[in-house]
């Protein structure tokens, strides 16, 4: 039986008769398999002039190693650059027939090794950089259809250039793409006001399954009660259940904003103040907790136009329809934070100053590295109920100090999401950093929290899933994986495991 039969049914164009070269058999070496894929993806179906496959050593390293994490280098055997859903379908069918694993690369900003090959054979990496188009903008419906390689910042800039007063509010790393954001289940500083990827910001998705079939998870209507919510099934699955090739995202109105900064005697007071301010219901778009070490890092980094008092602090971003509403929000928040020990409340006087203040918060990673020139940083995140955040921060800071290490701490205090950047220079310190992360994760889980609030699971956090969720929950995840991807070719080794090695237990 030939896989070409399925392809011919999907697209009768004679070019794709090259599919006859793919029987359900196992070529002896990877090179012969790649030659088959070149025939499938070349313009004439003869393998010539195929510019969609790279085996260049530098290209392989860029897709199997990252400065953002500390997992061993594991390079793919080839990198493939599709330009359409049809290309992805062909690649998946080829991989399925040859039992070659696939990882997907999008913006390359992940911190837990999501796009790193994690098995032998290492297989191929599908890079979505050539699938970065905005397909449709529906201004009246406040939504937009795009390919997975589109970057969220580029989307917002395009909307601004077109004079469309809408934006996509999820805001992780600047280089993040829609496909990566969808697959990781990201959020960012705007989560207090707009929620996360697992809210309703991704309306539907076109997904290529491991079988080669293409599905759309739901219609473009703003809401639907029709059957299972398959969109959310794929959000946060990190490419283990299917490959996303098109997404409809929801947009929000652009409203005026401004920024304020205030200092506190400790994290407990800052967290109490943030919670009380949010509970007033005024227009707070973001509220970020930064510790005294972070403030010291900002001052040392030298990119800020001002020097901050070195203390645990909150950065607020206010949002309102008018200047008057922004002023009212600032007045209410200033009163509340001062009731909780806040001092030095500084409100931006101009839009330029607001942007400068907020950029100081957004420079967290590089400011942290500036504390110890030549050091590397181990970034990680956990999340707990907001009321447990002070205990988590206090115990983690003490643990880091007792270990003789240096780290900056920031948190999306409005939702309890806590980030640390642990600095190290030697292999011995790297081991200490890894141990600190492990203790931090287990501390968060013990406080009714999670091993990751927004960075995802990947390679770095999967060992904690059973501890957090229980054997039965992880077993159900594995059952879904086994059903949709029985040969385990899609990002194997990520999130949980390939098959149900964790079996359901009786209570």
From TrEMBL:
Coiled-coil ranges from the UniProt annotation: none
Annotated GO MF terms: D-lactate dehydrogenase (cytochrome) activity; D-lactate dehydrogenase (NAD+) activity; FAD binding
Required cofactor names: FAD
GO CC terms in record: mitochondrion
Record has Protein transport as a keyword: no
SUPFAM superfamilies associated with the record: FAD-binding/transporter-associated domain-like (SSF56176), FAD-linked oxidases, C-terminal domain (SSF55103)
Main location: mitochondrion
Protein name per UniProt: D-lactate dehydrogenase (cytochrome)
Highest taxon listed in the record's lineage: Eukaryota
Organism: Pholiota conissans
Family from the record: Belongs to the FAD-binding oxidoreductase/transferase type 4 family.
Catalytic activities: (R)-lactate + 2 Fe(III)-[cytochrome c] = 2 Fe(II)-[cytochrome c] + pyruvate + 2 H(+)
A GO biological-process term: lactate catabolic process
Annotated ranges, domain FAD-binding PCMH-type: 72-254
Compartments where located: Mitochondrion
Annotated EC: 1.1.2.4
EC main group: oxidoreductase
Keywords noted in UniProt: FAD, Flavoprotein, Mitochondrion, Oxidoreductase, Transit peptide
């Amino acid at each position: 039986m030939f896989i070409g039969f399925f392809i011919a049914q999907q697209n009768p164009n004679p070019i794709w008769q090259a599919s006859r070269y793919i029987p359900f058999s196992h070529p002896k070496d990877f090179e012969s398999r790649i030659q088959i894929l070149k025939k499938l993806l070349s313009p004439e179906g003869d393998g010539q002039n195929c510019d969609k496959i790279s085996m260049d050593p530098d290209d392989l390293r860029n897709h199997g190693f990252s400065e953002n994490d500390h997992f061993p280098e594991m390079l793919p055997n080839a990198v493939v650059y599709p330009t359409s859903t049809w290309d992805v379908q062909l690649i998946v069918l080829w991989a399925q027939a040859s039992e070659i694993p696939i990882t997907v690369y999008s913006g390359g900003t992940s911190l837990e090794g999501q796009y790193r090959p994690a098995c032998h054979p290492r297989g191929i990496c599908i890079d979505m950089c050539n699938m970065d188009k905005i397909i449709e903008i529906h201004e009246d419906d406040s939504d937009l259809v795009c390919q997975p390689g589109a970057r969220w910042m580029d989307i917002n800039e395009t909307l601004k250039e077109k004079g469309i007063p809408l934006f996509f509010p999820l805001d992780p790393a600047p280089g993040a793409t829609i496909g990566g954001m969808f697959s990781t289940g990201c959020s960012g500083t705007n989560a207090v006001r707009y929620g996360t990827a697992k809210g309703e910001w991704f309306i539907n998705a076109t997904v290529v399954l491991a079988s080669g079939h293409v599905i759309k998870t739901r219609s473009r209507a703003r809401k639907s009660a029709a059957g299972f919510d398959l969109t959310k099934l794929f959000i946060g699955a990190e490419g283990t259940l299917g490959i996303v090739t098109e997404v409809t995202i929801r947009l929000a109105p652009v409203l005026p904003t401004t920024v304020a900064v205030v200092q506190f005697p400790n994290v407990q007071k800052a967290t109490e103040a943030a919670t009380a301010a949010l509970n007033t219901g005024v227009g707070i778009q973001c509220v970020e907790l930064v510790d005294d070490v972070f403030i010291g890092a900002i001052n040392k980094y030298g990119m800020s136009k001002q020097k901050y008092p070195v203390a645990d602090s909150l950065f607020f971003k206010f949002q309102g329809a008018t200047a008057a509403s922004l002023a009212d929000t600032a007045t209410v928040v200033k009163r509340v934070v001062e009731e909780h020990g806040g001092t030095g409340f500084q409100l931006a006087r101009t839009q330029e100053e607001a942007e400068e203040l907020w950029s100081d918060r957004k420079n967290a990673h590089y400011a942290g590295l500036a504390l110890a020139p030549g050091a590397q940083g181990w970034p990680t995140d956990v999340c707990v109920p907001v009321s447990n955040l002070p205990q988590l921060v206090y115990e983690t800071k003490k643990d880091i100090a007792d270990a003789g290490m240096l780290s900056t701490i920031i948190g999306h205090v409005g939702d309890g999401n806590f980030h640390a950047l642990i600095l190290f220079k030697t292999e011995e310190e790297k081991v200490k950093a890894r141990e600190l992360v492990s203790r931090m994760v287990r501390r968060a889980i013990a406080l009714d929290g999670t091993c990751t609030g927004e960075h995802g699971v990947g390679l770095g956090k999967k060992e904690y899933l059973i501890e957090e969720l229980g054997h039965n929950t992880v077993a159900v995840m594995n059952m879904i994986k086994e059903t949709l991807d029985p040969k385990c070719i899609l990002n194997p080794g990520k999130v949980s495991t390939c098959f149900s090695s964790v079996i359901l237990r009786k209570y």
